[in-house]
Amino acid sequence: MSTENPKQILFTQFAAVAKAVAHPHRLELLEQLAQGERSVEVLADRVRATVTNASQHLQHMRRAGLVAARRSGKFVFYRLADDAVLDLVAALRRVAETQSAEVDRVVRGYFDQRDTLEPVTRTELMERLQAGLVTVLDVRPADEFALGHVAGAINLPLVELERRLADLDSKHEIIAYCRGPYCVLSYEAVARLRARGFRIRRLEDGYPEWRAAGLPVEAASPSA
Amino acid sequence: MSTENPKQILFTQFAAVAKAVAHPHRLELLEQLAQGERSVEVLADRVRATVTNASQHLQHMRRAGLVAARRSGKFVFYRLADDAVLDLVAALRRVAETQSAEVDRVVRGYFDQRDTLEPVTRTELMERLQAGLVTVLDVRPADEFALGHVAGAINLPLVELERRLADLDSKHEIIAYCRGPYCVLSYEAVARLRARGFRIRRLEDGYPEWRAAGLPVEAASPSA
DNA sequence: CCGTCAATCCAACATTCCATAAAATACTGG
DNA sequence: CCAGTATTTTATGGAATGTTGGATTGACGG
Predict the structure, then answer these.
(1) Which of A139, A178, A185, A193 is catalytic?
(2) A134-143 pLDDT, tens per residue?
(3) Architecture per CATH, A6-84
(4) Which CATH code is given to the segment(s) B106-218?
(5) How far apart are CA A127 and CA A125, in angstroms?
(6) CA B165 to chain CA mean position, Å
């Protein structure tokens, strides 16, 4: 093992990292973890896998150095080990976007149908937020919002959207975001609210990218 | 398949891309392809694999959209499908660098021992090159140099280094580069030339990154 | 048309990986 | 220290992947 050519060793290590992200469940787990740290049970529930299965995947990723774990009482909380992991999945996404006809098909068929407008960039949102021109809408579930969100955003989970329309000012322009570039929540929100006459657009990516870029965030109560 | 949740489909596609790079041989093939297009036979030789095996890996990567192939007579030439692939392997490398103790060990043991100085960045090299302050040294094999190199660089393959020392001006500062960040060639060159009293440093990455950044390159004869 | 060479296809085998269930471990609160 | 909950470990079957050698295809040069 250690007598090999250094190049071989490095490539083997890089391949190990790639293997650790080379599974749909694991990518979905990473998307969840990008929102904030989570226990195994919650994660398993979110990705519709058994607890054992989720635990396996998480440990695999931990061995590869993608995620880190922290024990607190009975619970083990996993989190991303490093923001470089976000760059990695973003790079993965970009390659797939430019090269996979299947990705193109899905994007056209599902996403473009719900929002044909250009998304708003992070810097653009930051400027307009400071100028008080827009309402920022976080459509993720309340627990994810609580773990951290764009400073000044209001939380209105997609499932409660119709029930709480009154919370929204229909005169202000709205910028919606959720977990990341292809998170379905913000697309749905945009489609539904636009049908009701709201002026709404999407942020190009989601909360994890906003936070990783060093832009202002806030968390709800500092509870567990 | 196509009735699934769009998110599932996308994650499955992203995972397919990740799988396509999740093997040491494939990463090595990609490093070779980043220098320029190559036939299957040559590639197999470079990564010390059988032709059949190399062909399999290349086809796997082609299906995933990482590489493209072109037939010319009896030969099939493979090349990178997109510069986004370079970003992907760079992201892989960065994650491994920050998280893998094994990578750290190898880097310290092998690379840091040969060159402790800070490498030169691309923009820094560009400036000093224009000012005529430095000699740029390409230590890759002649055939790779011929496929494309930093404009103005001189080629002195590592194997011929000692034999052709006279080609180098010992007063000028030298910047050496090769295939990429952890390519052993430039490290070796730096170690050997510095021992002989040359003022030499390394470029932080290699030819593929230079070209992808849109900086000036040139190719030898437009042969093949 | 035949022989040759590059590359791919095919079949077989070993290896690794994934999902599930059952057992073991870690921690908490009595 | 016991009961209960959360997580990890272990074992197992089945699917997918990697490697190899031999057969096949496609292109070239007589």
Answers:
(1) A178
(2) 999 999 999 9
(3) Orthogonal Bundle (1.10)
(4) 3.40.250.10
(5) 5
(6) 24
